[in-house]
Amino acid sequence: MTVASYTWTLLRELVNAPPDPAERHHAVRLFIGSGMPRNLWRRVEERFAPARVLEFYASTEGESVLVNLSGKKPGSLGRPLPGSAEVRLARYDLERGRLAEGPDGFAVACEPGEIGMLLARVRLSAIGAAARPVRGCSGPRTPGRSPGTCSAATTAATSGSSGGTPS
After folding, report:
1. Which of 30, 72, 74, 96 is a plausible cystine mate for 41, CB 3.0–4.6 Å?
2. CA-only gyration radius of the chain, Å
3. Which residues sit opposite 19 in a β-bridge?
């Protein structure tokens, strides 16, 4: 199996190039990377079938990894990889430039269609390395779960949509 790595729109030039009859006999079976727009994703899979696109996101400051293994939602970064950090989408207030907080002081969960920020639980030993640690973002202590410490991703995303968001 041949795997090709990409970032963002790297494959756009290949998809936009005139078709060549020889390209149907390629050995590529998987394009793996991050940030491919959903319209490009569909065009890559159509043009280079039977190859698939596997989109992922991995944080540099924690242990969160999202993977779109099924490919059923092109443009989506997918779901947390088993064994990676717990993640949540918190509502982000663009006007104030910060997470929206509830009356209890914890970040408010993001609803579908709202602007949100990906938050990931981090190990206590990694808090010093996090760019902007947010303590208690996942709510107060509940049976079986300790208070959360999360690392906020540096970019806002729209919850519940495709195009670079968890699904």
Report:
1. 74
2. 18
3. none
Q: Work out whether strand 165-166 and strand 76-80 pair parallel, antiparallel, or are unpaired.
A: parallel
18-55 in b/e form (b: 16+ CB < 10 A) is eeeeeeeeeeeeebebbbbbbebbebbbebbeebbbbb
Length of the chain: 167
- CB within 8 Å of 149: residues ≥ 6 apart: 121, 122, 124, 127, 133, 134, 135, 136, 137
């104030």: which residue's tokens? 96
Residue that the structure tokens 């410490």 belong to: 149
Q: What is the pTM of this model?
A: 0.65
